[in-house]
Amino acid sequence: MSAVSIYAEASPNPESMKFVLNQNLLVDGVSVDYPNLEAAANSPVAQELFGFDYVGRVFIAQNFVTVTKTQPELAWTQIIPELRQFLKSYVEAGGPLFTVDPAAEQKAAQAATAGDPTQQEGQIAQKVIDLLDNYVRPAVEQDGGNITFKSYHEGIVTVNLQGSCSGCPSATVTLKSGIENLLKRMVPEVQSVVAEGIMV
């Protein structure tokens, strides 16, 4: 295993910090969001992170981990070295990241929630998914989060905001002024975008 280097990068959410690694944790396009310890049953590394009493949420994507803290009074400068050292040691030691491959898990979940859209709705949904994947997700990942498509029905697109986006003060603005405007412009059938996962 080659040496792991990690640097911390601020996100628009003051309570979330993105830890970027020089190697991949997941395949591109797959991410996992754990809002609490119970949700992290599939990820031993996330469970260990929740062992730090100030960790309130863990998000893992292709080559980064976003940690959201629960104690606003605790400065990042105090805890970044500890978290960085933990992640570096854990990954270098080859510690298990997941018990079940999240890519397989995600496919099963999407199939379960897809329902039976009409052919037209299915085509519109596919256009929306392509736009989110190509234009929105890369920008959101830069900020330490992720956006996933949940459903399209009668003009309403439902998305999931994960990682740093879930508690970010500017998430609602980004959603309405950025994502909704883009989708309405590119897919005329879209009337509005609503999000799950925004904790205000």
UniProtKB/TrEMBL annotation:
Residues 6-94 form the Scaffold protein Nfu/NifU N-terminal domain. InterPro entries: FSCA_dom_sf (IPR034904), Nfu/NifU_N (IPR014824), Nfu/NifU_N_sf (IPR036498), NFU1-like (IPR035433), NIF_FeS_clus_asmbl_NifU_C (IPR001075). GO terms for biological process: iron-sulfur cluster assembly. It comes from the Bacteria. GO terms for molecular function: iron ion binding; iron-sulfur cluster binding. Belongs to the NifU family. This is NifU family protein. It comes from Hymenobacter cyanobacteriorum.
